[in-house]
Amino acid sequence: MTADAGGVPAAAGRASSGLWASAWRRLMRDRVAFASLVILMCYLALVAASAAGFVVRDWSREVGVSYAPPAFMGPGAPPAPAAAPAATGGPNEADGASSAIADPLAEALAEIRRQLASAPTPEPKAGTLVFGGDKWGRDVLAKVIKGTETSLLVGLIAAALAVLLGTLFGALAGYRGGWIDDFFNWFYSVFTSIPYLLLVLAIAAVLNQKGILTVILILGLTGWTGVFRLVRAEYLKHKVREYVLAADAIGVSDARRMFVHILPNVSHVVLVQLSLHVVLFIKSEVILSFLGFGVGVDAVSWGSMLNEAQNELIIGKWWQLAAATGAMAVLVTAFSLFTDALRDALDPRLK
Amino acid sequence: MNPAPESGNLLEVRDLTVDFRLDAATTLRALKGVSFDIPARGTVALVGESGSGKSVTALAMLGLLPGTHATVLPGSRVVYRGRNLLELAPRDMRRLRGVEISMVFQEPMSSLNPVFTVGFQLREVLTRHLGLTGRQARARAIELMHEVGIPDPQARVDAYPFQLSGGQQQRVMIAMAIACEPRLLIADEPTTALDVTVERQILKMIASLQERRRMAMLFITHDLALVAEIADHAVVMRAGEIREQGSVRQIFETPRDSYTRALLACRPPLAHRPRRLPVIDDFLGGQVIAADAPERPRGVRGEAEIVLEARHLSKSFQLGKGLFGKAEFRAVKDASFRLARGRTLGVVGESGSGKTTMALTLARLYPATGGAVLFNGRDLSSLPPGAGLQYKRRIQIVFQNPYASLNPRFTAGELLAEPARIHGIGADEQACRAIAIEMLGKVGLPASAFSKYPHEFSGGQRQRIAIARCLTMKPDVLICDEAVSALDVSVQAQLLNLLQDLQDEYRMSYVFISHDLAVVRYMADEVMVMNQGEIVEIGDADELYASPRHPYTRQLLAAMPRGLIDPAFDEFRNARAGAGQAE
Question: Which residues of chain A does B422 touch, with a Cβ-Cβ cutoff of 8 Å?
Answer without folding.
Answer: 250-252
